[in-house]
Design brief:
By secondary structure, the protein is mainly alpha-helical. Helix content is 41%, strand content 8%. It has a two-stranded antiparallel ribbon. 12% of the residues are buried.
Length: 74
């Protein structure tokens, strides 16, 4: 699981993605986000990301709110 919090920047998201081994280069992630013009489209939420996903695949997930389902327990 990977969490994006409200107010996270592309730089902070990229740093966490790199720390978690999901991307190789946080600076490149930030540059790709800027080049694609999707800074404002990254949505807060809990996501399921996997090692081996491309940066573009990760960006699609983070833009379209494909979030991890919540489980409610009593």
């Amino acid at each position: 699981p990977f969490e994006v919090q409200r107010g996270d920047t592309p730089a902070s998201i990229g740093a966490r993605l790199q720390r978690n081994g999901l991307i190789q280069d946080a600076d490149l992630f930030r540059q790709v986000v800027k080049a694609r013009g999707v800074e404002a489209r990254l949505e807060a939420g809990d996501y399921v990301l996997q090692r081996g996903m491309t940066m573009d695949e990760i960006l699609v997930v983070l833009q379209h709110g494909v979030v991890r389902p919540n489980t409610v327990r009593k």
